[in-house]
Specification:
Number of helices of chain A: 12
Helix content of chain B: 25-40%
Structural class of chain B: alpha+beta
Shape of chain A: globular
Largest interface: A-B, 17 and 17 residues
CATH class of chain A: Mainly Alpha
Number of strands of chain B: 3
Distance between the termini of chain B: 68 Å
CATH class of one domain in chain B: Alpha Beta
Structural class of chain A: mainly alpha
Strand content of chain A: under 5%
Helix content of chain A: 55-70%
Radius of gyration of chain B: 25 Å
Largest sheet of chain B: 3 strands, antiparallel
CATH topology of chain A: Ferritin
Strand order of the largest sheet of chain A: 1-2
Strand content of chain B: 15-25%
Order of helices and strands of chain B: EEHEH
Oligomer: heterodimer
Shape of chain B: elongated
Order of helices and strands of chain A: HHHHHHHHHEEHHH
Number of strands of chain A: 2
């Protein structure tokens, strides 16, 4: 099979398996993309982990702990896919803590209040599930299969987040204000989440059919699904230009410089969280040693 | 460390379908990891945890002669049925 034949095959909806011949560029792009996904799952639990001890009720503590467990489980499954593509887990983790590999922009920010925890579980997970659903048709089948399980778990994470938000919105004025402030903080990063609006046909990830939709398409889907849900609670989206014209949402241009700055390791919490991972990796070395000696 | 493939059964009587894989130092750990990854939310009723080396894949299937007579798409009856009905004089009734 030539690279052109491979490209035609995946563009026609064809899927490939681990043992199949893969063009070098395809394999390299898969590793980079899937590794970043795994890193994001692993780093994404840190903003929520900080709130386990401060969660308002026992039920919330249990739900948040379970969610953290789920996300770490996703990281394990996804690193497994990366390993089969040729990059060992040790190497992925080393590249993560050295700052060489990236993780998603939304996990570089602080979780200031319990309102942030609700907004993360509801809207950050909603934005993520839109990206992840577009991976169910990924041309690399082992990744697509793993995504089925992940989407299933994300679907109740969103409900957990929405439940937190609804409880706060039905509470005191201070609680409602907590949600509005959190939304104000997260709106910018949320609008940057799906990336700059590069046309799908020029996006290598779409060309290789690793993703099945373009960045702007994903963002439009997010706005379409969630802006009405935000509005119906009496919350204000902090963007005066946001409105739907025909089928298209118009909005203020997201801050792409901020996105680039943050994902290249300069977010407000990047250094602190990578340092935490570094310490944990060292601290838990004995577990790996014991297991491997078994 | 070795790779173990995990197959999960969603409900009694259903086929075991491939779900993913886990990496473990021995079968006992592989079973524990598979249990956590693919069963802890009651999404499975049973798992098969199999060393990757034990899976023998067979994927060479050829049909150079186009033997359609052993497939349902090898039989297009519509046109023949129309003619037969005409000859039997039952075409109008239908």
């Amino acid at each position: 099979m030539t690279e052109a034949e491979f490209l035609a095959y995946v563009q026609d909806g064809g899927q490939v398996e681990t043992g199949d011949w893969l063009p070098d560029e395809y394999r390299a792009r898969l590793i980079k993309f899937i590794e970043m996904h795994a890193n994001s799952e692993l780093m994404g639990v840190l903003p929520e982990r900080e709130w386990i001890l401060r969660a308002p009720t026992l039920q919330r503590k249990l739900a948040l702990t379970a969610k953290v467990q789920d996300e770490v489980g996703h990281a394990q499954l996804i690193y497994r896919v990366v390993e089969d593509l040729g990059k060992p887990r040790d190497q992925s983790l080393a590249d993560l803590i050295s700052g060489k590999a990236k993780f998603h922009n939304v996990f570089h920010y602080a979780t200031k209040t319990w309102g942030d925890v609700g907004v993360i579980a509801w809207l950050v997970d909603a934005a993520a599930i839109i990206s992840q659903k577009a991976l169910l048709k990924c041309s690399y089948a082992p990744y697509a299969r793993i995504m089925k399980k992940i989407c299933w778990e994300e679907s109740f994470h969103i409900l957990h987040g929405r439940d937190v938000i609804l409880t706060l919105m039905n509470g005191t004025d201070e609680q409602r204000e907590l949600v509005q402030e959190a939304l104000n903080r997260w709106w910018g990063p949320l609008m940057q989440f799906h990336g700059n609006p590069i046309p799908a046909d020029e996006d290598p990830m779409f060309v290789w059919r690793i993703k099945s939709q373009g960045n702007e398409e994903a963002r439009q889907q997010f706005l379409d699904g969630y802006v009405p849900q935000i509005w119906e609670l009496g919350l204000t989206v902090p963007d005066p230009k946001l409105r739907k014209v025909g089928d298209v949402w118009e909005y203020t241009e997201p801050d792409w410089d901020e996105l680039k700055h943050v994902v290249t390791g300069h977010g407000p919490k990047t250094a602190e969280r990578l340092d935490f991972r570094r310490r944990m990796l060292e601290q838990e070395q004995w577990v790996r040693d014991v297991v491997l000696a078994a | 460390m070795a790779i173990y493939e995990v197959f999960r059964q969603e409900k009694k009587g259903a086929a075991f379908a491939h779900a993913g894989s886990v990496e473990a130092p021995c079968a006992e750990f592989a079973e524990a990891f598979a249990h956590e990854q693919y069963g802890r939310r009651h999404e499975s009723v049973a798992l098969w945890v199999v060393p990757r080396d034990a899976v023998h894949e067979v994927s060479a299937f050829y049909d150079e002669l186009g033997k359609t007579y052993h497939r349902v798409d090898g039989y297009s009856l519509k046109e023949k049925l129309r003619v037969a009905r005409e000859r039997a004089g039952t075409a109008e009734d239908r």
